Amino acid sequence: MKTISIKLITGIGLTSVLILQFLWLHNIYTLHRGELKEKINSAPLQALQWEIGNHTGSNSTETLHIQIDETKVLPTKYYHVEVARDFPEERLPLSLERIDSFFHAELNIQQIHSDYYLTQIDTQTDEIVESSGKKPVTRWGILESEPISLANGSEILKVALTSPYRMIFGKMIFLFFATVIILGLVVYCIIYQIRIIARQNRIACIREDFSHAMIHDMKSPINTIMVGLNMLHSEKLLDKPEKRDNYFRIASEECQRLLSLADKVLTLAKLEQDSLTLHKQQILLKPIVSDLAEKSASKAGKPVKFEIRVNSEDIVYADGDYLKEAISNLIENAIKYSGESVRIDIKRTVHEGHDHISIRDNGFGIPFKDQKKIFNKFERASAAGRKDRAKGLGLGLNYVNNVIRAHGGHVILRSIEGEYSEFILVLPRQKNM
Predict the structure, then answer these.
(1) Can you tell me the distance from the alpha carbon of 238 to that of 415, in angstroms, rounded to the nearest whole number?
(2) Using one digit for the tens of pLDDT, what is the confidence trace for 26-48?
(3) Separation of alpha carbons 42 and 48, rounded Å
(4) pTM here?
């Protein structure tokens, strides 16, 4: 499946999860708000009950009857309060100040901690008869109770909480934290899964490109060997010893090339499994560098000038075979990624207890954006679609990097595109050197 399709499906799934989570939180919020609404609807009625009981006395025959008036005359649902007395035509006086006190006590019993205000409104003039508490400037963010009809419907009592949502969200705080944690884990798992899938796709592409590149690189020397063997077998060169020796030399070099490629792949596998055994010892560096320079110049196919600044007595502590192969890879790259002629400078210096072996060329250079991944395995093979792709499997620099790291050192890359490339092999010195 393509990465774009995976991302699209993942995006749809994640969006669905977010929507469901939002709906769940909204339902929880609606539930808490409804419960709070019921409490502030019942609290003023209870306060009125206390006020009437306080006014008439506990031995009074008065009772409080509450009924809901849903007549079309009133715009909303009203709680209608009637008081049955011995003389029902007399009006029962109510004190808003005492009602406020009883209402505050009832809120404490209900464990509702919020600012509020009470208003007594004349239904005829729609004017406030009396109020308690500080009325907010705007109506946004308040929660009002259902109006309570008083004095035979000529007045109504209304209660409003001015900061109810802080209390509602306070009850939901753990749900918010749990939601954030769960969504964070879901997003992390999805992103991690996408990365794994993308990495698997990339590995599959690299493996396919590597297979094509390896077959191509093996096919050329095999064809060369077969041509040489056919010529030698045809007996056409029996009287031409120089050409016969040349065919033998070419076949031998191509066989060595195949063997070198196989050894490189096996060595990288051992390095990745930490099973490679190095035989480090003090070795002379100049013979290695001089031999590589001579062989590389003879088979380069273009002018190559070496500037070797290595003294005859310069010694490094390393495995000679693997170090030689690493330097050979760097020289081959310098020749491969250069113009019609190339200059290669090789020098050895000592810095802070380490030997620095520098191989610098005047070739194409390496773009800055590619410098971080140039040591990746199969980098050349993964670049099969590039126009500037050179032949090779992309094992050379990865081999160099792993071999030097196995020695306990590291590789420093300095390069400017279009000017030069310099690789510095940093090797620790033997303690007694």
Answers:
(1) 52
(2) 888 888 888 888 888 888 888 87
(3) 10
(4) 0.49
